[in-house]
Amino acid sequence: MGQPVASRGQTATPTLGKAMLNKYARAFFTRVLTPFAAFLIRRGVSPDTVTLIGTAGVVAGALVFYPMGEFFWGTVVITLFVFSDLVDGNMARQLGRSSRWGAFLDSTLDRVADGAIFGGFILWYAGGGDDLVLCAVSIFCLASGQVVSYTKARGESIGLPVAVNGLVERAERLVISLVAAGLAGLHTFGVPGIQYLLPVALWIVAVGSLVTLIQRVVTVRRESAEAEEAAAAQDDAATQDNEGKQQNASHGSEAAT
């Protein structure tokens, strides 16, 4: 899940680890994890390796435990590996590294982790959970999350700022889903009724993702129209300027004659 892209010299969408910790908790864990990050650096471990291991842990936690209905332990495993977000970012800062490759790797593996988490829900509801409606909702959460990320990336790739804070972006999708899954898993320890938290959370994520997708599409459409109007205005101004220069040149030529 990766190094904070800020350490790569770019602005970033919050990673899962940063989303699950407020700024005070992040500061505490940064101090705690700094010696461990330094230890890994001395052993020749790269930040990218930590990123890959962290993502592999999240994928394993989601695809091994969730399809069995073990939501509590699956969430525990995922949360433990989420700290790789803080460790590899800390390592990158200590090494003074900033690279487009690191930012690319982070974003790519974030999509892999997202797919594994919601894929685990899909497998559960398609199997032991025996609920095709929630299976479909989980599929929609997975697909809409990927499309929401794509709309921003695609909009930025064509030169638009995509300046909108969506209702439910990646951090919110994952925190809502993982917290609900972890609490729902307490049902196996005898906590009554708590298993319904996950279905409610998935519906919230599905609706919120749809709203966010619409917000981004509308924003890109507006920004695209504004950009085209600005370009047209520049072209008109340039044309008028050229015509004015031609007229001045013509008048000067007539005067000389």
Overview features:
single chain, 257 residues, mainly alpha, 9 helices, 76% helix, 0% strand, disordered N terminus
> What is the number of E strands?
0
- How can the largest sheet be summarized? none
Mean pLDDT: 86
What is the alpha-carbon Rg in Å? 25 Å
How much beta, percentage-wise? under 5%
Residue runs with pLDDT of under 50 for 5 or more positions: 1-13
Per DSSP, the total helix count is 9
**H and E order:** HHHHHHHHH
Distance between the termini: 75 Å
Instruction: Tell me roughly what share of residues is in helical segments.
Output: over 70%
Described by the principal axes of the CA atoms, the overall outline is: flat
Q: SS-based structural class?
A: mainly alpha
Structural account:
The protein is mostly helical and 257 residues long. It contains nine helices and no strands. Mean pLDDT is 86; it is low at 1-13. The longest helix has 60 residues, at 197-256. Helix 6 (100-126) runs antiparallel to helix 7 (132-157).
